[in-house]
Design brief:
The complex is a heterodimer of chains A (360) and B (650). In chain A, 31% of the residues lie in helices and 17% in strands. With 360 residues, chain A is of the alpha/beta class. Chain A has 2 domains: 299 residues, Thiamin diphosphate (ThDP)-binding fold, Pyr/PP domains (Rossmann fold, 3-Layer(aba) Sandwich); 36 residues, no CATH class. Chain B is 34% helix and 20% strand. Chain B has 20 helices and 25 strands. Classes of the chains: A alpha/beta (360), B alpha/beta (650). Chain B: This is 2-oxoacid:acceptor oxidoreductase subunit alpha.
């Protein structure tokens, strides 16, 4: 594993090294398109849009080399509001489309905007394969735990027993944990943030943008029409003390009032547990290592939250390791082929094999 | 089957049903004292178990024949199972080759020679073989168990059921093992070379050049020199067996087809290879990198394999997680300025339909290559059919017109790929290319084109504003169309100032912004249709040598060879018939309606239940008569000729 990481690191120094830089200083305004934003008033998507538009100038990239690709759903309207290149595609397919674009154009910064239905239901296959392939894509998964655009059916992240129009007696199926899924699909960069915490959201975007390969950012997003308050436990100041675990690489995993709680590993089961920190057990508190080669601890962190109450929800970058990047390697193969065989000669190719000549 | 022939020889392929091999050009005696007869053409079928290497044997005989300069046409026919149960009827794999000293059009209706490697191969193929034909059987396999497996109670070699055939009983396995006894191979290993023994024997019978096969074997088994030499030895032993044994008293010569071909360099090529080369050529001629997004599916996978070999041409081949991702990635690459292609077969097209609709809406160039196979559903993966025409034409939600082109012979797949690329790039649209299993795996001689003769497919990306607003501001409108082609500008990411958003929601004419306006939608639906309807395609040419035929036979795609062969028979028999063949199925050539009006009767042979006929009837109110077969095999010229004759006489 160490070897492959070293290899990947050697051929992919940074996600953005091939993307041209902007010649002029940009502001948030440069990234606003002339289109009227048409989400419901109060939708969490507004906050995410503002955060992304506000963050983009910081990257210092030529605006024309940035592309937003989306699928279908409320969140997928996002590209229309970004004054970059963009494609609003079809349901679930954005990762596939973005893969072709990113793999053929390494000079672009390609972002995918998707939702819990788009990415995890109809497009689940493309999501997991994009992650394992590690194409240079930044996937923003807006998770509101509901189908908004189709007016309120339960989604693959809705809690069991969810009462919706399509499940009047409660939904039966267990939800996906998107970050567990991503780690199972070999994702190298996995993070979670919340729509209303602009500072945190921006910091996560910053790290995602710099990551070579696929980055998955799950953004908890409030749908105030069909699933209002779904993440209230993480937003209400008082509740958040208990509910939110802010992860920072290299820091002990502590949270709660006066950082009174901590996460330790159970020596017998290997699982993670929350304890009340005392001077005696303080040394047992885990130090967060986003760069750990093994995804085991990151996976355990994704399982920490209670799916119903959302208590003990880690946010931040859970995993950030470098793996060989698909588009870099694809490009290297093309270069190697030219080195080995010379630049393709069409005339020679067509006349290859056994030939014979007919003279008139 | 040379589509390049400028003036097709009006030489009819005589009916194959007589079997046997009748000399046309006299006879002579060879060095070994054996008689040598001259033939103008021969049809050979190699048949054996799936594991017997019949496809390889056929391929090698084809290569020998091609390098000798005969015209040829091939029909590989194999089960979908990789290793069907040994010795059973479903497990039989065959390869038919028709070669001649003149221009031919089909793999032939009925073999003059059948090579049967086991009882199953004999039983499965005998109904196609006319009395009088030669049958070479591997007698070693005609033992109790293998015969019982296919329901032979008695040996057909002894019970008189092969009376009327010219049977050569040859213990192929024993002779091969004997020839290889010096090699110290296990019996099982040695037996594997029996196909090369058979190839050697047939190569002797027809005076095929052997250097190519020996070179091929040494290359193929370069890492196992002992196996290479064993195969070469078996091959030579087969040749020598023919030369010495008295059972083979006669050998045959089929002269090169020198007059059938225009001057040039030739090679033998299959449809999928020609198509792959056509795509690489289109990429070069367009000066755009080629991107293939594909998911493996029979019989299209060979294009994925072939293109993956040519990365030094800048080809990016992407094996996707599914059919949808294959076309999705291709569409993404098209947005980025690649010549984008997805390759598949019918079931894959069904999965790609929604993305093809998106490409129609985005108005980006995209090639959708459908190597049709028997359907519905999984159908007959390794067999041919033409039943995706209506799927290509209409198989999407909403009004989503897509141009369609179809190659007519294996070699023609090269030109069809260039033509599909021309339409896609010029009109910024997805384009269907409908090949099929018969074209994909069949092969024929191909005159290698001069690269300088290939069409110029270069495109202009948008580089700046294309519209001035009322207040004088210069802006870029992604859906402002070229007045002539109605194509929209192709503005690729990375172009400063042209940042724009496209998508599958209906767009406002010009600006490309989201629009739900009724009048705008009506306009956009009609303009997308008008763009496809307005694609410039050449007029259809009618071949009507007497100029007064009252019946027209109209085909499309891979039926070209059988239809043309049937037409020759009809004309040789003294009847008048006109023939035309469609390369463009959407839009139809502008003169098609007029052409159809000119004939009392129009016959449309198709390997479906009349899909083109349906389109013709709807569009031109013509009483097109369907002649259809869906047997997973190409039409036989004789049957078609009968059907045409009936239509003429009706």
């Amino acid at each position: 594993m160490t070897d492959t990481i070293a290899e990947g690191a050697a051929s992919a120094p940074s996600a953005l090294s091939l993307v041209p830089k902007t010649a002029v200083k940009q502001t948030m305004k440069d990234f606003k398109s002339d289109q009227e934003v048409r989400w419901c008033p109060g939708c969490g998507d507004y906050a995410i849009l503002a955060a992304v538009q506000g963050f983009m100038p910081e990257l210092g990239l030529a605006k024309e080399n940035i592309v937003f690709v989306s699928g279908i759903g409320c969140s997928s309207r996002f590209p229309y509001y970004m004054n970059t290149y963009g494609m609003h595609s079809i349901h679930g397919r954005a990762p596939a489309i973005a893969t072709g674009l990113a793999a053929s154009r390494r000079d672009l910064s390609v972002w995918v905007v998707t939702g819990d239905g788009d990415a995890l239901s109809i497009g689940g296959n493309h999501l997991i394969h994009a992650l394992r392939r590690n194409v240079n894509l930044k996937i923003l998964l807006f998770n509101n735990r509901i189908y908004g655009l189709t007016k309120g059916q339960y989604s693959p992240t809705s809690e069991v027993g969810k009462i919706t129009k399509s499940t009047p007696m409660g939904s039966l199926d267990s939800p996906f944990n998107p970050l567990s899924l991503a780690l199972g699909a070999e994702a190298g960069f996995v993070a979670r943030t919340v729509d209303s915490d602009r500072k945190h959201l921006t910091e996560v975007l910053r790290q995602a943008a710099a990551h070579p390969g696929t980055a998955l950012v799950e953004i908890y997003q409030n749908c105030n029409i069909f699933n209002d308050g779904a993440f209230e436990a993480l937003k209400d100041k008082q509740q958040a003390q208990e509910a939110v675990i802010r992860l920072e690489h290299g820091q002990p995993i502590r949270f709660g009032l006066d950082q009174s709680k901590g996460v330790i590993r159970n020596q017998h089961t290997g699982d993670l547990e929350v304890i009340t920190v005392t001077p005696e057990n303080e040394h047992q508190v885990l130090v967060h290592d986003a760069h750990a080669t093994s995804p085991t601890t990151a996976f355990a962190l994704t399982r920490l939250a209670d799916p119903d109450t959302l208590h003990h929800t880690p946010i931040g970058v859970l995993r950030n390791v470098e793996r060989p990047v698909y588009d870099t390697q694809m490009s290297d193969q093309l270069d190697n082929a030219v080195e080995l065989k010379g630049k393709g000669d069409l005339g020679a190719l067509l006349a290859g094999g056994d030939t014979w000549t007919v003279v008139g | 089957m040379t589509s390049q022939v400028s003036s097709p020889a009006e030489q009819a392929e005589p009916a194959d049903q007589q079997g046997g091999q009748s000399p046309v050009g006299g006879q002579r005696t060879g060095d070994g004292g054996k008689e040598i007869r001259r033939l103008d053409r021969v049809i050979i079928r190699f048949a054996g178990d799936s594991g017997d290497g019949m496809q390889l044997t056929g391929d090698r005989f084809t290569s020998e024949t091609a390098s000798f300069g005969n015209d040829l046409s091939t029909l590989p026919n194999f089960p979908a199972e990789i290793r069907a149960p040994a010795g059973t009827l479903p497990g039989v794999s065959s390869f038919q080759l028709h070669f001649a000293d003149h221009d031919i059009l089909t793999p032939g209706d009925a073999p003059n020679v059948l090579v049967a490697m086991n009882p199953a191969a004999l039983k499965a193929n005998l109904p196609d073989v006319p009395r009088g034909a030669e049958i070479i059987v591997n007698t070693d396999e005609f033992t109790k168990r293998p015969m019982a497996k296919v329901g032979y109670d008695q040996s057909p070699l002894e019970d008189g059921s092969l009376d009327g055939y010219h049977v050569h009983p040859v213990p192929l396995t024993t002779l091969t093992v004997e020839a290889l006894k010096e090699f110290g191979l296990s019996r099982k290993e040695a037996e594997r070379s029996k196909n090369m023994f058979a190839l050697g024997l047939l190569s002797w019978m027809y005076h095929r050049p052997t250097e190519g096969t020996e070179k091929f074997l040494r290359q193929k088994f370069a890492k196992k020199p002992q196996i290479a030499e064993a195969n070469v030895t078996a091959f030579r032993a087969g040749w020598n067996f023919g030369e010495t044994t008295e059972d083979f008293a006669v050998s045959y010569e089929v002269a090169p087809a020198t007059t059938a071909f225009p001057t040039g360099t030739y090679r033998n090529i299959s449809g999928n290879l020609a198509l792959s080369y056509g795509l690489i050529a289109a990429s070069r001629q367009a000066d755009l990198p080629l991107f293939l997004g594909s998911y493996p599916i029979t019989p299209a996978s060979d294009i994925l394999h072939e293109l993956s070999k040519h990365k030094n041409f800048g080809v990016r081949s992407f094996q996707a997680e599914d059919e949808i991702a294959g076309i999705g990635a291709a569409l993404g690459a098209a947005f980025g300025g690649s010549l984008a292609v997805t390759t598949t077969s019918g079931p894959g097209v069904a999965l790609k339909s929604e993305t093809i609709g998106l490409a129609v809406s985005l108005e980006l160039p995209l090639l959708v290559i459908d190597i049709q196979r028997g359907g519905p559903s999984t159908g007959l993966p390794t067999k041919t059919e033409q039943a995706d025409l209506l799927q290509a034409m209409y198989g999407r939600n909403g009004e989503a017109p897509v141009p369609i082109v179809a190659p007519k012979t294996p070699a023609d797949c090269f030109d069809a790929a260039l033509e599909a690329a021309r339409i896609a790039l010029t009109y910024r649209t997805p384009v269907f290319l409908l090949s099929d299993g018969y074209l994909a795996n069949g092969s024929e001689p191909w005159r290698v084109p001069d690269v300088d003769e290939l069409p110029d497919l270069r495109v202009r990306f948008a580089t700046g504003p294309n519209h001035v607003l009322a207040d004088g501001t210069e802006v870029f409108w992604p859906y402002k169309r070229d007045p002539k082609t109605l194509a929209r500008p192709w503005a690729v990411p990375g172009t400063p100032g042209l940042e724009h958003r496209i998508g599958g929601i209906e767009k406002q004419d010009g600006t490309g912004n989201i629009s739900y306006d009724p009048a705008n939608h009506d306009h956009m639906v009609r303009i997308r249709q008008a763009k496809v309807d307005g694609i410039a395609v050449p007029d259809i040419e009618v071949d009507d040598p007497t100029g007064d035929a009252r019946t027209l036979v109209l085909g499309w795609g891979s039926t070209y060879g059988p239809i043309t062969a049937a037409v020759r028979r009809v004309r040789t028999a003294g009847d008048r018939i006109a023939q035309a063949h469609l390369r463009h199925l959407n839009p139809f050539p502008a003169n098609l309606g007029k052409v159809l009006e000119g004939y009392e009767k129009v016959v449309v042979p198709e390997m479906n239940l009349g899909q083109l006929a349906t389109l013709l009837r709807a569009r031109y109110l013509v009483d097109a008569r369907s002649f259809t077969q869906v047997r997973g095999l190409p039409f036989k010229a004789e049957q078609l000729a009968t059907a045409l004759k009936e239509a003429i006489d009706d």
